[in-house]
Amino acid sequence: MQTTGVSGRGARFKRVARGRDAFWLYMAIALALLALEVFGSGVPRQIRGYANDLAAPLLSLLDGPIRATQAGLERVAGVGDIYSENQELRDENDRLRQWREAAQRLILENERLRQILKVPQREIPPLVTASVIGVGGGAFERSVLINAGAGDNVATSLPVVDEEGLVGRTIEVGLLTTRVLLITDLNSRVPIRLERTGDVAIAEGMNEPFMRLRFLPVDSTAQIGDRVVTSGHGGLYPPDVPVAQVTSIEDDFIRLTPLSNLEALDFVRVMDYRPLAPEAEAEQASGEEGTG
Question: Contact, 174 vs 150, CB < 8 A?
């Protein structure tokens, strides 16, 4: 037992002695390298370079798994982002579905109201699409010539529109061509309605690029930026066709700028809007009442 204890303590003393010797050896090497660095020798840098060269293969070997791990983590994070985006898209689809259902209900309600009030359909089919082939000249005329006429079933007093809104109405119909009176012509009067307030008035042409709003109710609150649409009164134009926008208000002069670019018209559509004469409309109304 004593022999075993003595041998154990001797082994510990030897390990401590070896550790002490290694410590002083490393310290001596560190001091030597420090001295070489201080005195400007390139040996330490060379040693670091050799060490880097020796470690490079190991680092390259370890770089693959590290990059693979990083890529995997990025994919996991990407999956999380995709999941969040999918969830947002689902929510948006739900909202759009609700809006669609609400729109369909409104369409049905509007259709019932039209039937009850005997209001004509707003969707007026186009009769023909034509290109502008000439512009009326002179200081007292605002008109254009289009390449559609009686051969295309065009008649007088039909509304003409483009993709932005009302352009004018047909006034002279030939076999192959038709002259269109623009809404800015001095002889043009368009019954309109302020879209925001519902007030009715007249948009009057002035042989200028703009129009004038006339006969607006005194208590109307017209504002710059208000859009005006056709009211349907008089039967010449269908209701709710965009016409112009209020661009300035000076005392009693309310200036309207047409929504259509009348100075650079290219293609226009002649609308198949032929309202019934008052007598025919009265006969139709009485017939419907008798049927009901």
Answer: yes
Tell me: pLDDT of 66 over 70. Answer: yes
What's the farthest any 2 CA atoms get from each other in the chain?
138
What pLDDT band is residue 138 in, cutting at 50, 70 and 90?
low
- The alpha carbon dihedral of 17, 18, 23, 26 has a sign of positive
Where in the chain are the domains? 42-71+126-182+264-275, 84-121, 184-259
Q: Is the dihedral of CA 10, 14, 19, 21 positive or negative?
A: positive
Q: How far is CA 137 from the centre of its chain?
A: 39
Strands 242-250 and 253-258: antiparallel
CA distances 207 to 136, 186, 240, 266, Å, are 12, 5, 24, 20
Q: What are the φ/ψ torsions at residue 193 (nearest 5 degrees)?
A: -140, 135
Architecture of domain 184-259: Beta Barrel (2.40)
pLDDT for the residue numbered 165: 94
Residue 258 C-beta-side C-alpha neighbours within 13 Å: 29
Q: Comparing 290 with 159, which gets the higher pLDDT?
A: 159
Domain 42-71+126-182+264-275 has CATH 2.40.10.340: yes
- 42-71+126-182+264-275 with 184-259: one CATH topology? yes
Q: What number of residues does the chain have?
A: 292
| Cα 3 to Cα 11: distance, rounded to the nearest angstrom | 12
pLDDT confidence of residue 83: 73
Distance of CA 130 to the CA centre of its chain: 29
Confidence of residue 181 (pLDDT cuts 50, 70, 90): very high
Q: What is the mean pLDDT of residues 84-99?
A: 82
